[in-house]
Design goal:
By secondary structure, the protein is an alpha+beta fold. 16% of the residues lie in helices and 30% in strands. The longest helix has 12 residues.
């Protein structure tokens, strides 16, 4: 079992929760292919909308990957993003700032937002436990 963070605007997270799916890196499949059924995925939302929404800076959803491989969706004639099915938990948003000192993936507390520029990245079981406790606790 692995754990991942996916950096996504709140509005897109809400669409994913409603539809039971996630996308990553503007619909590209490469990071989704690394995920396995049963992996955990946490969503961090820097803003309400991409790219210019209001700041959120919170973990906004959490769930488990619920399929065996990515699938392609037909959103429009020219957009066919890759997705993974996710079984989302009922959770509350958890602002990141109170968690910064406890998260191992935040290597430089003065530049804590840097890691989220990667979009999707793997985190430790410790970091998953910290975030899950804040969202479900």
């Amino acid at each position: 079992m692995a754990a991942w963070i996916n950096t996504v605007s709140r509005s897109h997270v809400q669409r994913g929760v409603a539809g039971g799916f996630t996308q990553a890196n503007h619909g590209k499949p490469h990071m989704l292919q690394r995920m396995r059924r049963g992996d955990w995925i946490v969503f961090y939302s820097p803003r309400t909308e991409h790219p210019d929404g209001d700041p959120v800076q919170a973990f906004t959803a959490i769930g488990e990957v619920a399929d065996d491989e990515p699938y392609q969706s037909d959103v429009s004639d020219d957009f066919h993003p890759w997705r993974r099915k996710v079984a989302f938990l009922t959770a509350r948003e958890a602002p990141i700032r109170p968690l910064l000192d406890d998260l191992d993936f935040v290597e430089d507390k003065s530049r804590w937002g840097y890691k989220f520029r990667y979009g999707v990245f793997e985190i430790s079981e410790h970091d998953l436990a910290v975030i899950r406790a804040a969202m479900l606790g």
